[in-house]
Amino acid sequence: MMNRPILLVEDNPDDEMLTMRGLRRGNVTNPIQVARDGEEALEMIFSVEVIPCVVLLDIKLPKLDGLDVLKHIRENERTRLLPVVILTSSSQQRDIIESYNLGANSYVRKPVDFEQFSKAVAQLGLYWALLNEPLPNK
Question: Which CATH architecture has domain 6-130?
């Protein structure tokens, strides 16, 4: 089985570093691609032959916000079933509702504490990259 990449869409360098550390701490060996804004994320998703096994998507992004990215992913036949986990600091009820309305697979609020954040990301990575049985790549 091919080790499909994880796409992390995150504009905050500190959160990017913590997420990468958490994934490695969880022994996730999938390659990790990073997009730092919504437009770059869509370009990375739609320009590759092998789509990611999961997208870890922040909501508050430059150029195109995460909810718009999610909408584009769900509108495309090739990516409409791509697992997308909203990984954000927002606890706004409207963000949670809209994320699920647009087809998010999960909504995870980033813990403030480093140790909790690292553990949460490790668990996410293990589940989506190793335990979850993905759709065959189209």
Answer: 3-Layer(aba) Sandwich (3.40)
Q: Is the pTM of the predicted complex or chain greater than 0.85?
A: yes
Distance separating alpha carbons of residues 66 and 62, to the nearest angstrom: 9
Q: Which residue has the tokens 């993905």?
A: 134
Residue whose tokens read 């949460």: 120
The one-letter code for the residue type at 102 is L
- pLDDT grade for 1, boundaries at 50, 70 and 90: very low
Classify residue 53 as exposed, middle or buried by CB count within 10 Å of its CB (0-12, 13-18, 19+): buried
Domain parsing of the chain, residue ranges = 6-130
Estimate to the nearest angstrom the gap between the alpha carbon of 69 and the chain centroid. 11
86 in helix, strand or coil?
A: strand
CA–CA distances in Å: residue 7 to residues 63, 91, 93, 94, 113:
18, 22, 25, 24, 23
Q: What is the pLDDT of residues 28-77, one digit of tens each?
A: 889 999 999 999 999 999 998 889 999 999 999 999 999 999 999 999 99
Q: Is 129 exposed, middle or buried (0-12, 13-18, 19+ CB in 10 A)?
A: buried
